[in-house]
Write a structure and sequence with these properties.
The structure is a single chain. By secondary structure, the chain is of the alpha/beta class. The chain has a domain of 195 residues: 3-Layer(aba) Sandwich (Rossmann fold), CATH 3.40.50. Helices cover 34% and strands 26% of the residues. It has nine helices and ten strands. Helix 6 links the parallel strand 6 and strand 7. Helix 5 packs across helix 7 and helix 6 packs across helix 8. The longest helix is centred in the middle third of the chain and has 18 residues. The structure holds S-adenosylmethionine. S-adenosylmethionine (SAM) binds next to loops.
Length: 293
């Protein structure tokens, strides 16, 4: 189904992969997201950080593995999170599914191969697997990219065995308390959509919960993990670079929203060529769901 991406961008698109089409689904079938660009896929895989590594370990903890499980990694990308999870397996296996062949390719040719891992090209809301196939499933750093998140969690429920567990790990925004928060969230999503396409949408802790409960998951546990930071620039802070774009634009366009951004998330001060950022992002709403028996 994604075969048209078999030869993506072989003849140098240069760095024109940011797809700034304001209202466009026009190119959807040709080139859905940056993840279909081999250059971006390779660069994505190199972005590792302590926060990411820590979150991956927390996710693995929540999967509570004995070591013999069949695990599904939904939107596996280059397998960055599957790698540490696989280290906890003995006889079990992980299958990673993703729509972007460029991301799967990077994982496939990786210098540090993932044990007991296989890949499958496919859409997260039309999983290419039989019902009742997996003991565990997880989705990391991808829920906010899905155009049809309800379809995805529904599909995961279908392929999970009875009693199976599903863990969602995703950056979240704060629950909106008033119209300023709503306007801020709109602006944040707008900025991210310029790079990631129209499907992009940050969720809140409660919107993830509602999404899951609506299709029939039982909530076993939900935890928000906040990572404080104080440093020059956003290196190592997942999704950080775009947050700084939000800050710089709001400072000019809407001081009231800039102020709320400071209160809710982080402050920023230019000094020389650097920008000092200080605050905290709640990168993960960790959920552990049990499929009802
Ligand atoms: C930010 S990456 C995360 C990859 C990996 N889970 C990680 O944590 O490193 C998001 C991934 O979601 C994939 N993706 C987005 N929408 C998808 C969909 N509807 N079906 C399958 N994969 C999808 C993208 O191709 C990309 O590889």
């Amino acid at each position: 189904m994604t075969a048209e991406h078999k030869h993506p961008h072989e003849h140098g698109h240069g760095d024109r992969h940011d797809h700034d089409h304001e209202h466009g689904h026009k190119h959807d079938h040709v080139h859905k997201t940056r993840f279909h660009d081999p250059q971006h896929a390779a660069e994505f895989d190199r972005r590792t950080s302590d926060i990411r590594a820590d979150l991956a370990e927390k996710l693995a903890d929540m999967l509570s593995l004995k070591g013999d499980e069949q695990i599904l990694d939904v939107a596996t990308g280059t397998g960055r999170v599957a790698r540490p999870v696989a280290k906890r397996l003995k006889t079990g296996r992980i299958v990673g599914v993703d729509q972007a062949l460029a991301m799967l390719d990077v994982g496939h040719h990786h210098e540090d191969p993932i044990r007991a891992y296989s890949q499958s090209a496919g859409e997260a809301d039309a999983l290419p697997f039989k019902s009742n196939s997996f003991d565990r499933a997880f989705v990391s750093f991808s829920l906010h990219h899905f155009g049809n998140p309800a379809g995805v969690v529904h599909e995961v429920l279908r392929v999970l065995k009875n009693g199976g567990k599903f863990v969602v790990l995703d950056p979240i925004v704060k629950e909106a308390r008033d119209s300023v928060d709503v306007a801020l969230e709109t602006k944040i999503n707008q900025v991210f959509r310029r790079t990631h396409g129209d499907n992009f949408r940050f969720h809140t802790a409660s919107s993830i919960q509602r999404l899951l409960m609506k299709v029939g998951y039982r909530i076993a546990r939900g935890t928000v993990v906040t990572y404080p930071f104080e440093q020059d620039g956003m290196d190592g802070i997942p999704t950080g670079a775009h947050w700084l774009e939000v800050a710089e634009e709001l400072e000019v366009e809407a001081p009231q929203l800039a102020q709320r951004l400071r209160e809710n998330y982080f402050t920023w001060h230019k000094h020389g060529d650097a920008v000092r950022v200080k605050g905290g992002f709640s990168y993960a709403r960790e959920h552990r769901k049990e499929r009802p028996h």
